[in-house]
Amino acid sequence: MPNRPVRFFHRGRIVEVADAAPTRTVLEWLREDAHCTGTKEGCNEGDCGACTTVIGELAAAGDAQAIGGLRLQTVNACIQFLPTLDGKALFTVEDLRAIRATATPKAASTTASRPEAAARGPQAGASLHPVQQAMVECHGSQCGFCTPGFVMSLWSTYEAHQACGTRPTRQQLADELSGNLCRCTGYRPILDAGQRMFELPAAQLDTAPVVAALQAMRNDAALVYETPAGRLESPRSVDELAAARMARPEATLLAGSTDIGLWVTKMFRELPALIHIGAVDELKRIEQRDGTLRIGAGASLEAAFRALHAHWPSLEDVWLRFASVPIRNAGTMGGNVANGSPIGDSAPVLMALDATLELRRGERVRTMPLTEFYVDYMKNRLEPGEFVQALRVPLDGAAQVRAYKISKRFDCDISAVCAGLALQLDGERVAAARFAFGGMAATVRRAAGAEAAVVGRPWDEATLASAQRALAEDYRPLTDMRASAGYRTQVAQNLLRRFWLETRPADPLRASELSVWSAMPHAPRAMSALSDGGPR
């Protein structure tokens, strides 16, 4: 395929880039080339949210989250490589004034709840978008460095809720802002602004010109982008991907770049050959087949966890605590599994669910239990030219499933220990058990001794004690900056006890006793007010 420029929609027109390195980040391009400096550089690793932008893509037919034919999602510009924008739309804080200027004025829904704001009215900042105006009125900014990132996260939420006529709860707003770090203002006035923005005259994005531009770019050939700094190709079908992978087994497979991006921004690694899977729509499909939930390896973490949550609602907390909304929008569950980090939060959950992998090499497809995939630290059983094509999760519905994440910070943090636990009871006896832990060894793996200690025995406190003792022999965790070895062992044993308390045949804990969120006035956390769970 011939080399061609990267083409994407930005600031009302299609932009072409032909000379940037394939690993040049969207943030670098925005600030240094496009001179759109509203987007800030903070941590440069996708953690603080100062660089939050919104990516627009054409929505698939029947997409419940479509907004005028578009799917809008927040991402961290600091770790997204510029060529991955090909065929998409990029929105930054600079776009909001234009959206406000072209919006059809509408009456505010109510200002009675804030008489002081109503007295001032929006006229003082009439050129500001309602999201920005609300931040001004609610004093949501002090130093202002993080503010554009907060504004873009709030704008994404604003567009989604305006499109379907709903309002997020305060807790849902907090979840949407989980990837935005404020160091000085405090989150209370920012959440106030998140509620206030819906009370101001509406200003919604006119999606028609964006959709027209994206549809025009669909006629472009598949991207092959090569400069003296390296090469990136972006096949559009699984067959094309398999052929490219066989031809260049040494190339780095790139999905959401939520890990690979840090190889460049933090480790300064050179990646001369990249194969981007983000344009392969087949890999993004999630569907039920033959009693299994099949999750394409290119499906986002957000979409994959939403699908799992639909079958196992008990996974909600681990879903919402997996990184942040922008990371879950960009990263893929297939990539998280293939990467094989011992502190990756997908693998313990999937092992507890007895997941298997579809592995593709050329025309050959083979399956492998996830429990057999990892060999050692960051090593797996993939052969040269092979890649993860999909994840399969059986939908037997019989097991009780829980997942717990322990970290120093509640939102947007790396696990010290992550547990995925599943149990099937026959009366009061354990018929089957799958206990998987991350952060306890060089790889995520199941606790064979603890499982053996419970199978066939009554699920009572004596059996629990046996499993806890066996668990101490299943792993030899390390001490590092996140936790000591002793702490990890004790926490893992305590999580087994919590699991027992929740699933014991006699007097299991009620749902209202299981989570801090059940006691909060703004629960539930999930965006159930929006169809299909809403954007996260």
Report on this model:
The chain is of the alpha+beta class and 536 residues long. It has 3 domains: 166 residues, Beta-grasp domain (Ubiquitin-like (UB roll), Roll), CATH 3.10.20.30; 111 residues, Orthogonal Bundle (DNA polymerase, domain 1), CATH 1.10.150.120; 221 residues, 2-Layer Sandwich (Enolase-like, domain 1). Helix content is 31%, strand content 20%. The protein is built from 18 helices and 20 strands. The strands form 5 sheets. A 5-stranded mixed beta sheet has the order 2-1-5-3-4. It has a 5-stranded antiparallel beta sheet with strand order 10-11-16-12-13. The longest helix has 19 residues. The radius of gyration is 24 Å and the shape is globular. The two termini are 36 Å apart. The C terminus is likely disordered.
Taking pLDDT < 50 over at least 5 consecutive residues as the criterion, the unreliable ranges are 105-125, 527-536
Looking at how many chains there are and whether they match, the oligomeric state comes to single chain
What's the CATH architecture name of the largest domain?
Answer: 2-Layer Sandwich
User: How many structural domains can be distinguished in the coordinates?
Assistant: 3
Mean pLDDT: 91
Q: In CATH, what is the homologous superfamily of the largest domain?
A: CO dehydrogenase flavoprotein, C-terminal domain
Shape: globular
CATH top level class name of the largest domain: Alpha Beta
Number of helices: 18
The total count of strands amounts to 20
- Residue share in helix: 25-40%
Strand residue content: 15-25%
What does the main sheet amount to? 5 strands, mixed
